[in-house]
Amino acid sequence: MKKYTMNEINLKQFIFTIYKTQIGIGVLSLPRDLAKTAGTDGWLAILLGWLLAILFSIIIIKVMEKHPHDTLFDLFPKLFGRWLGGAVSSLWILYSTFSATVAMISSIHIIHVWILTNVKESVLMPLFMIPVYMAAKQGIRVIGRFAEFVYLFTLWMPMILFLTLHESNWLNLLPVGQNGWFAILGTVKATVLSFLGFEVAFMLYPFLQDKKSAVKGVIIANTMSMLIFMLITIFSYVRFSQDVVMEYVYPTLNLLKLIRLPILERFEIIFLPFYLFILFMTVIPYLYMSVFGISRLLGKPDHRKYLRVLMLGWLALPFFFTPSYAHITGLGKLWGNLGLCAAVVFPILLWIYQRAFFKFRKGSLR
After folding, report:
1. Which of 96, 56, 82 has its CA nearest to residue 203?
2. What's the rounded Cα separation, in Å, for the pair 191 and 193?
3. Which of 102, 209, 212, 289 is 20 to 30 A (C-alpha) from 124?
4. Angle at 14 between CA 11 and CA 17, to 5 degrees
5. Residues 123, 302, 350, CA angle at the centre, nearest 5°?
6. pTM, to two decimals
7. How far apart are CA 99 and CA 181, in angstroms?
8. 273-303 b/e (C-beta count within 10 Å ≥ 16 → b)
């Protein structure tokens, strides 16, 4: 029997939630991150990262197919037992909480630096928390609908980048492979980090109405993200030289500064408030996965009181910690390393363990 019938999502909501979770903070600095190692060949590494992201996403789906109506936090006790399963659940809760927190404070930092320089983070935090709280408290169905809204509301954003192509130099991309294939392969880690967000499929799968389409869903979501990453990276390289890209903290925003309209300058200041909706869609799935995991771990049906406790912690955070760019960068690197463990290493180990678990159980029943 389905336990989460009242909170189901359709395939479009499944796709858009994963897609918008991936398109967040990292896309703003992606061209610079790739240029550090692979130069202007970084766009080739995006293709390799895309293939790996699809592979790991499919592994996640194959793991969850064995227990189609169980969430990840229901699955752990069945596979590992009560105590070890609880410990693994706790690690996932900590990872989700950390991811949501880093995404939130990074979003606040960007808006504070680029737009509202005279507004304190302690003022921005409660303002940012309102839409995040309203979506996360309602559950997966509302999060899926919000993802659909954000997709439609921000559909114009990739198209606006074509306005930056004046005075571009496509020869900046040549010769292809100029830094060698080892440099390109060395950049794959950075591209996989950009695709982080596909691990929320662990949480979304039990709520998906048509579970047979889950593999198709993760392929489409990762492909949509790949196209955005490719577009931004190539446009940055043809508009700026490699040396110029390396000078910018957020090359994507500097790319938007080149847009000049008859009645508007500093287009990135208009762009960023709309982009906030995308940033929120990075925070919300991780936040919900955290508080939902806490409620399942404690055997409680309502996740909202744990959400309120976490919100109180976020409200107090700016009074004790005001991050600099160095802090944001360090937290982002830590998030990336933890994400590689959660989204790459863990699904592979869980898939191997699950196969061995079922094989052993079948053998013991004979």
Report:
1. 96
2. 5
3. 289
4. 145
5. 95
6. 0.93
7. 32
8. eebbbbbbbbbbbbbbbbbbbbbbbeeeeeb
